[in-house]
Amino acid sequence: MKNSIIDNIHNPEFLETAYRKDSAAFKQAFAEAYPSLKDEVLAKAWYERLNYTQSEISWGIKNEWKVVAILAAIVALFALLPNFIAVEQDVFYAKNIGFIVFPALMVYFVWKQQQPTKKLIVPLIISVLSAVYINLLPTLTHSDSVNQAFFHLPLFLWVIFGYTYIGGDVTATGKKINFLRFNGDLLVLNVLILIAGGIFTAITINLFEVLKVNIENIYLNYIMAAGLSIVPLYAAYLIQNNNHLVNKISPVIARIFTPLVTITLFIYLVAIFFKGTYPTANRDYLLLFNVLLIAVMALILFSLSEITKHTQQKSNQTNLWVLSVLAIIVNGIALSSILYRINDFGFSPNRLAVLGGDILILVNLLFVSFNLYEVIKGKIEVEKVESSIALFMPLYFVWTAFVTFVFPFLFHFR
């Protein structure tokens, strides 16, 4: 797209069409092309348009806060159900945490983006059927297959939410990348709100303790439960209307932690080699590996958005490639570890779930690493690396669906 922008800089119709087709990819390509176009009047206009930031807090379009408030009230009431019906809180939240978060976000983004209401039909039907299914599953304390279904269902719903966010346009890679970036911003803002809420909670409870009034149970079961449930919705609302507040934080965090994670992984691999300890037995350790690898891909994604803004572009690309290679080696250790456990103990729900996720992440990382190497060599543009990250979203969806809806029956609820 970079070359197309350069070739058509005097063609306003082409530029506008390309921007509307895939705004995220256009913005990335324009940033790469701008240094060679900065003397063009139209390029200057597009630069200002794409880099405009508002100077004050926005609360959205007319009546938006009312829509968010209604959705938040519904979400809070649903989250408080264990206080009014005969169900264990732990069981209820294990089964329904995904439904507390994602359906409201789906409705909000369909409304916010002015999508046709029919766009909600399929996602909501899937959500309702999933809710019926998961709540009809038996609550078996020692059933790994059922527990895996509980764990993977929110991931399944997250992909359904992503489908809604991009308006069902699954071929638009830029929109998928934009969705992944939105999730990084959402995570950052959620953490900030939760830190502030935690401080407020501690102060409030202790203030009443001074008066010998114990409000802890009521506060935790009602106020905090309702508050936690609506944090993702309000965070999304703030991001959509004040993207300038957080959209620069995630790349900065990635830029800080990328070298730290790279050094840590290198030292860890060296320690394994010299210590001669090859970890194979700890299931939680293997799960931690997969979490680490997903974090590495997030670091790569958010670092890419800043690469073209710095003069040390080549060194930053090389750093990311080194990180991806180290992550592949770590993934190889995790994969061989789980295969070792399967060889010794056979298949189980946990081992198969970790194995499937590990293979998907490994192949994804191989694509990312290869494309980063091609970027360093100057053969492809950075956006191709982003595409290789988004490419696997449908595969993750299929795997989470398989674990959620097939595992309990495949393993006979073991």
Detailed description of the structure:
The chain folds into three domains: 52 residues, no CATH class; 182 residues, no CATH class; 162 residues, no CATH class. It is globular, with a radius of gyration of 23 Å. The mean pLDDT is 85. Helix content is 78%, strand content 0%. The chain is built from 18 helices and no strands. The longest helix is centred in the middle third of the chain and has 38 residues. The chain is an all-alpha fold and 414 residues long.
State the assembly state of the protein chains: single chain
The average pLDDT score comes to 85
Low-confidence stretches: none
Give the end-to-end Cα distance, rounded to a whole number of Å. Answer: 51 Å
Count of DSSP H/I helices: 18
Sequence-ordered SSE layout with sheet pairings:
Layout: H1 2-7, H2 12-21, H3 23-33, H4 41-50, H5 64-79, H6 89-112, H7 121-136, H8 144-165, H9 173-210, H10 216-241, H11 243-246, H12 249-275, H13 283-307, H14 313-345, H15 349-376, H16 382-390, H17 393-405, H18 407-410
Helix pairs in contact: 2-3, 3-9, 5-6, 5-10, 6-7, 6-8, 6-10, 7-8, 8-17, 9-10, 9-16, 12-13, 12-14, 13-14, 13-15, 14-15, 15-16, 15-17
